Amino acid sequence: MTSYDTAAIQKLDAAHYMHPFTDHKALGEKGVRVMVRGEGIYLWDSEGKKIIDGMSGLWCVNVGYGRTSISRAVYQQMETLPFYNSFFNTTNVPAVQLAAKLAQISPPQFNHVYFTGSGSEANDTNVRMARRYWDVLGYKDRHTIISRRNAYHGSTMAGASLGGMEDMHAQGGLPIPGIVHIDQPNYLQFGQGMTEQAFGLQAASWLEQKILETGADKVAAFIGEPIQGAGGVIIPPSTYWPEIQRICDKYGILLIADEVICGFGRLGRWFASELLGMKPDLITFAKGVTSGYVPLGGVLVGDRVADVLIEQGGEFNHGFTYSGHPVACAAALENIRIIEDEKLIERVTQETGPYLNRRFAELADHPLVGYANSCGFVAGLNLVRRKGASVHENETFDPSLAVGMVCRGHMFNNGMIMRAVGDRMIIAPPLIMTTAQIDEMLALIRHCLDLTYADVKERGWL
Ligand SMILES: *Cc1c(COP(=O)(O)O)cnc(C)c1O
Q: Which CATH code is given to the segment(s) 33-63+343-458?
């Protein structure tokens, strides 16, 4: 086994490496954790500590770490043709094969793919493509895109604008013009005194209000994550998406499903739209398409949009050097083959998904847990100070105490990666996780909740 000089790496890191979404002064004081190896659902850091990766890297390592067949596919493609562009009447074999494969596994209205290097670039592509669609049809004013507060759609100018993160909008003059937001379908936040089903319809009605306020003839598209990921695994009521779909259809507005997290088996389908009653015109994908082994993103372009752009649109003046990168596409093809071969989607639907959902729900009996819910292979729980008679009557902690971060610290120190979004603790494990590994993970989570409880009590916060 390779040994690492952790302190030296930390020192170099602090001196030269600017990390995404990081307060460097604070990080410099703590020292960064160095990840060095992965195998299956486990990671190892430079101190030799073994960790359960409850977040699949960053929602992406769906088939787990250490897949030599992916590294072999990548190596072979690099040896054969490491790069060529798709700009000037040229193509490459893995990109063609992957486009055809995605057309096969996606909902029936999808037959074309536009490749990018990331999810953010794919959402920038969506903005330009949706507006271009309406331009070609002669509706020059239909440019507004409606999105949601607390959505995450990436970090580029358009991606961060589509997203509804206040902290991101506060830096760099965002959102860009022509993007407006409605509230998220968060039952805990807005659903007091209502059933979940009734709340779903009400949250969808906010879209219709915004369309009417903006002018239906000015709205190009509505974009949403089927289940919000970075916002804290916000699972909408089952009534929400069918009603959103009805409203989009009523006003002829394009529906964009950002499936960067939800796609490629995470909710027990190739694409979550199929599960939640959506019939999108465009689907954003990234992350799970390659299980993160190599960066790749893209847009599945539905027939409604593709037909107009191809038949009437002429040249679409948009593209990236790495659109359809042969190495990334080779990784994706092998990743998809593994998902099919090992029946990971069927397992999440029939076996491990329901098992995780049941075991995770049991955490609600812990004194710190006021609400725990999940869908497929995403789950979240809310840490509360005192439980009330209903979820809306729970007493929450003062947000400035950052109890979620305290809990995340105990998880991290005890070999479990669980992310904190405020006081909501979330997971999105690799799809290969077995029921025995789910038991191992849940035992560890419960142990760390106990440690958090004792810690919070000692600090006098209970
Ligand atoms: C991660 C993410 C993105 C951005 O993808 P990048 O590859 O980081 O640019 C967009 N949308 C959703 C829903 C995501 O989770």
A: 3.90.1150.10
